[in-house]
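Tokens in:
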């Protein structure tokens, strides 16, 4: 008698696994995610980090337990932004990383972004393999288990890399910038970097709080009224707003007008293509025509993808593009 195919539930969405903490996302799922990752990846060390959501420490413990049970050493980076964790994964001997976050979603949500050894979220093929393992939920514990090392806050090499890519350092030192980190973990990075570059920084919602009391975590125009007002009142040169895990940046101009993310992408694209005519630019199909117009003007090659940062990032690698971005404020290079 032929065996029936069992349909494996879909866990990964556009960007990782997300759901309401305590209902759809809990310590049991976190343990299975850690166990599946520990089974799938060959190397011995995995970096883990989290945003400031109240459920993140609980999920961190479940995730770490699953990895340790599979014999993987865990490097616990604690509170960290998604870009910083991805950088650390790529530039160390780690096999993978996991960021516990629900990005821009409301505080009751949480989830997992699984990062491959190249610093980019794992491809869809690996997501499917993890889903099969998580659904099967059968694990063989390692003897001995892995070891856990706490290295929270040690991201000096990340700041050094960011500083090395600032082309107009003197210009930054003359700016007054209002930074609204939305009570997210980018409070650990953006204000510090800008102050180090000499900018005068005014912090807004710059205390990490997983309930996001200052504003909705998604940096959309309707949530940035206070930032716009402060930029105008302070006579600042610009404002910057981040989401919960710091992988989106939306800018406010000196008049207090919130600029869409794809307009920021277009400015970066224009500068890049001016210096690298003919370069490839990757963006999803929901990006505005301004990105296409700049590519045409500068003789660049525009490549469209499905929606999702993983789609953009993986396409950048596959086609050898120099830049990619989304309308939500995410830029990749």
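Residues out:
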């Amino acid at each position: 008698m032929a065996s029936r195919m069992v349909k494996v539930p879909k866990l990964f969405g556009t960007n990782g696994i997300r759901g309401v903490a305590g209902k759809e996302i809990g310590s049991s799922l976190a343990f299975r995610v850690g166990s599946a990752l520990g089974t799938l990846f060959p190397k011995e060390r995995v970096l883990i980090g989290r945003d400031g959501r109240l459920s993140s420490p609980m999920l961190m413990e479940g995730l770490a337990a699953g990895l340790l049970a599979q014999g993987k050493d865990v490097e616990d980076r604690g509170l960290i932004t998604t870009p910083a964790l991805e950088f650390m994964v790529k530039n160390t001997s780690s096999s993978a990383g996991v960021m516990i976050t629900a990005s821009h979603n409301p505080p009751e949500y949480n989830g997992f972004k699984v990062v491959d050894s190249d610093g980019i979220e794992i491809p869809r093929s690996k997501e499917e393999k993890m889903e099969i393992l998580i659904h099967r939920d059968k694990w063989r514990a390692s003897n001995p288990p892995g070891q856990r090392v706490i290295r929270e806050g040690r991201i000096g090499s990340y700041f050094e890399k960011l500083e090395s890519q600032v082309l107009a350092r003197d210009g930054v030192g003359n700016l007054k910038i209002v930074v609204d980190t939305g009570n997210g973990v980018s409070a650990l990075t953006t204000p510090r970097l800008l102050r180090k570059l000499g900018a005068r920084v005014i912090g807004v919602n710059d205390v990490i709080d997983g309930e996001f009391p200052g504003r909705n975590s998604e940096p959309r125009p309707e949530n940035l009224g206070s930032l716009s007002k402060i930029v105008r009142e302070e006579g600042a040169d610009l404002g910057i707003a981040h989401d919960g895990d710091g992988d989106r940046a939306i800018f406010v101009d000196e008049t207090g007008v919130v600029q869409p993310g794809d307009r920021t992408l277009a400015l970066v694209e224009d500068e890049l293509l001016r210096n690298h005519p003919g370069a490839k630019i990757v963006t999803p199909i929901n990006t505005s025509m301004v990105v296409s117009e700049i590519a045409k003007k500068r003789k660049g090659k525009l490549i469209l993808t499905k929606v999702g940062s993983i789609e953009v990032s993986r396409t950048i690698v596959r086609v050898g593009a120099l830049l990619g971005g989304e309308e939500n404020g995410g830029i990749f290079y």
